[in-house]
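Lab notebook, bench 4. Still working through the backlog of constructs that have no structural model yet. Next entry is a single chain of 149 residues. Request: give me the structure tokens for it.
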Amino acid sequence: MAVTFFWSQGLDAEGVAMMIRTQVFVIEQQVPAEIELDHWDAVAWHLLAYQKNQPIGTLRLFVDTQGQGCLGRMAVRAACRGQGFGHLLLTEALIQAQRLAFTSLLIHAQCQAAGFYRKVGFLPFGEIFMEAGISHQLMRLSLVGGSPG
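Model written out:
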């Protein structure tokens, strides 16, 4: 399963990453379009993954106002799910986070995906909360002294 990764800083709202996010979040999950694109997109590192020149998924990394490394907006196209691409995307993101000297990563995980993040070491904390009408759990992964994936 040869996958090519491309990192860029800032998001082109008309680009491939936004197309994937719109399909997954706005169309499939019915997240309001006006909250899908936010102020973090302009400063975040965006990852795009391709297989055979076809886009398969995206996510973003950024540092929040408290200096915490954050991972979010992870999305894999419906036709590509269940094939391990999500794990490859996440592994690449963890490698990039370490390159950027992040010591930990915070994620607002959709509760339905929390088990996926637990498998690579993210630990839940705090109460479950609603975001865009979807149940979420805060989770954190320490990047100090470990290897991603």
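Notes after review: The CA atoms of residues 87 and 102 lie 19 Å apart. The first strand starts at residue 4 and ends at 9. Flag for follow-up if needed.
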